[in-house]
Amino acid sequence: MAYVGGERTHDGCVLCAIAEGDDDGNRVVEQAELTFTVLNLFPYSSGHVMVVPRTHVADLTELSAAEAAAVMEGAQRAVRALRLALNPDGLNLGVNSGTAAGAGIADHFHLHVVPRWSGDTNFMPVLADVKVIPEHMEQTAAKLRDAYAKLSS
C-alpha cells in the first residue's frame, strides 16, 4: 500500500488535518457536528474506524460532556454501519490513552471501533507482525458510506 513508505503530507496533528479537509486517502466515512469517523490508516482488520472529536485534546477528561457524548453516539453509529456493511461476528471498541498505552496519535483523543470475525487471528500477526487485510480500504470506505447513508434515511 502506498502509505507505508510515503512522505508525510501534513504538519501537526494528522486528525486535525483530516478534520480540516485534508483527507487525501478519502478515508472519512462520516461527518457529524462534533465528530467525524475515519478508517484507520493502519487497521487491525477491514473496517477498523476511529471516531474522532473535532476538538484537539489528548485526554477523554478534556472533552466537554457534549463532546464525550458525541463520541459515544458516533461509536454507536459506527457499530450500526459496520454491522450493516461488513456483518462482523463481533466488535472491539477501545481507547489507547498515551504512548505508553499504545496510542499512535497520542495528542488527539479518538475511539477505535474494530470489527472482528471468528477465526480472524492467524499466524501472520503472531509470528510475522503482519496484518492481512482482505479488502482494499477504498472498497471498505465505499461500503461504510453507503451503510451510513442507509442508517440516516
Description:
Strand 1 (28-31) and strand 2 (35-39) form a beta hairpin. The chain is of the alpha+beta class. A 5-stranded antiparallel sheet has the order 1-2-3-5-4. The model is unreliable at 1-6 (pLDDT under 50). It has one domain (14-152): HIT family, subunit A. The chain starts with 13 loop residues before the first helix and ends with a helix. It is built from 4 helices and 5 strands, in the order H-E-E-E-H-E-E-H-H. Helices cover 32% and strands 16% of the residues.
Question: Which terms would index this structure?
Answer:
153 residues, alpha+beta, five-stranded antiparallel beta sheet, 4 helices
Produce a short descriptive summary:
This protein has helices at about 15-20, 65-85, 125, 135-150, and strands at about 30, 35-40, 50-55, 90-95, 110-115.
Number of discrete helical segments: 4
CATH topology: HIT family, subunit A
Topology, number of strands: 5
Sheet bearing the most strands, described?
A: 5 strands, antiparallel
Q: Please trace the helix and strand order, writing H or E for each element.
A: HEEEHEEHH
For the record, give the distance between the C-alpha atoms at the N and C termini, rounded to a whole number: 34 Å
Are there runs of 5+ residues with pLDDT below 50, and where? 1-6
Morphology: globular
Q: What is the strand and helix layout of this fold?
A:
Layout: H1 14-19, E1 28-31, E2 35-39, E3 49-53, H2 65-86, E4 90-94, E5 111-116, H3 123-127, H4 137-152
Antiparallel strand pairs: 1-2, 2-3, 3-5, 4-5
Helix pairs in contact: 2-4
